[in-house]
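Re: beginner question about structure tokens

> Can someone show what the tokenized structure looks like for a real chain? I only ever see the sequence side.

Sure, here's an example I had lying around. Input first:
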Amino acid sequence: MRNLIITKKLLTTTIGLTAVFAAQGHAATNRPANYTTICAIGETCSVSAPTNVAFGAAGVFVYKVLNGTFSCTVATFGSDPIPSKAAKECSIPISGNGISSSSVVSSSSKSSSSTVVSSSSLATTSSSVSSSKSSAAISSSSSLVVSSSSSVVSSSVSSSSVASSSSVANTTDRGIISTTACARITLSYPDAATLTGATTPLQTALYGVRNYSAPVLVDGLHSPSNYRAAPVLPTWEFATVDPTHGVLTSLECDVAPEDGWAVFRRNGTPTNQSRVTVTGGRNAVANRIYTVFNGQQFVNAINEAGLDPKIIRVVGHIDLRYSNNNKTFTEYTSYSDQKYGGSINIPSNTTVVGINGSDGKPARVTGTSFLIGGELGTGTTPAEDVFKAWIAAGNDGDLFPTWTRNVIIRNLKIDAPWDVNPEDSGNAYADAMTLSRAQNIYIDHITMSDGDTPDSLASDTRHDGALDVVRGSDYVTIANSYFTKHHKQTLVGNGDSGRAWSDDGRLHVTFANNWWDGLGSRLPLNRFGQVHLYNNLISGSTNATDADLKFGSGVDARYQSNMLLENLAFHVDGLKVEDFCGKAILGKTYKGFRSTLHLFTSDRSGTSNVDGQCGFTQPAAADAWTPPYSYSLQLSTAVEAKANAGAGAGK
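And the corresponding structure tokens:
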């Protein structure tokens, strides 16, 4: 068969686009599907209207919108998509210009044409993998390396096979890099950033990278037969434009306020504490301030900055199941794929903020777990053994070189992920956010729920905790946030006597000005922690017709906990005031419990003042404590209105 040779001819497409062709025997893999080559590397090309031009070879491309005459070079596109291939080409869509309303989705519009394949079940005896062409993606910040053909999981995957994406992960796109930084300020107390040692190991490389592995048993858990993809997917609202144009405000630059446990550190013993200033990433230099629009940019920014102070500004909607600049969706294929590929590990000295869209909606995170810290061992030696050996050698536990410190999270709407392959029918694995061996953490104005995949969609357990503070974490403040539609909300401490080695004397946590609404339990459930709650609202109904919003129980004081509750408001319909104790407040095996000045409202009992002590034993003199920080108590009669007005993302 004779080769068709097109030499320097003019071709007018259906949109009136004129292109100069210099294609002689071009390989199909050197251009994306439904694209045609217009010139080779080093040559000059021309298009007569803005066009999404592809540059690359061997199925890997950089895309950029160009108009007029340009050189087909790495310099034009800003990066080399495949350095190992010298013979690259520039190509354009055969039909259209590659720029459509679905290619660029604003934060206020809905994505309707992204490739989305969601499996409702995962078989263990057959394999079916379908291939979908990804449309040319446009990045507002830089060129994006993608594959022209991305494999996505279809209806079934064999337990002995791996469903892998042929997309080439772009490890360099970090979104928009700032040209300005936060103004320098004088700190009243030592910067918590100074507590991060040079030997602190980074855990970020483990996470945010999909492995597309098939489901397998792990220590007898996560049976492949229990795989189930998320039954409902959200209406994604991706963005490509930052409505603030990168202008930094107090959202990014404020340090944590001084009205909670987050701003302390211990000096050798739990009772010897001193002040620090939690700065997060506000001291970042300009090139460590990133605006990100997708999960890969987020992960790349974290990996580049490491332990340096950094600010991550999230615009639009983040979901690690999406790749190719939010164009290709692939459901998690296994427990391992979700655990690692579906998590972002936040290292020390980081501020993460959501940027409201032009419509006022906060940035949103779906299908993704945030991990702040992790409990690390050494090689094959378990974390518990390594830490105990450190202490036995006479070392200060706070100098053990695996703490994650100095993190601020602000103004994000976070959906707790659906666990595709839970441990068993009664226990899921994935949390929305987990603090493990983390210190000096401030979480502010977040909204957290099960999103579009509540428990009622499952016949078994598909969610674990929403926001857990565990494994020795210490000096944490959670404030001004709204939590709803979740069964097991917050653990402070995740074990009884078996966790004393990590938790005893730690877990200092403040909950202030939050709103817990329509939740099942754990508001919070506390073991070991010295936990302070003030100005919080707990609301719901024991008779809710929506099972996902049914109130189950409230504050739960458990093993060796020592709690102080002040000026809370409870609005729980269906609950009589005489049943308040044991339902709104409950506990056992605690060390100490103090509660005062609450307001209880119900359709069954009207409004009553309650102290909430519920006959619980107050701490012995040796265990009594007073918050070492200044804070303002609201009248309990004002708590509900203020929580309604001010708690959550976007407020």
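Each token stands for a local structural state, so reading them left to right follows the chain. Confidence is low (pLDDT under 50) at residues 1-26, 100-168.
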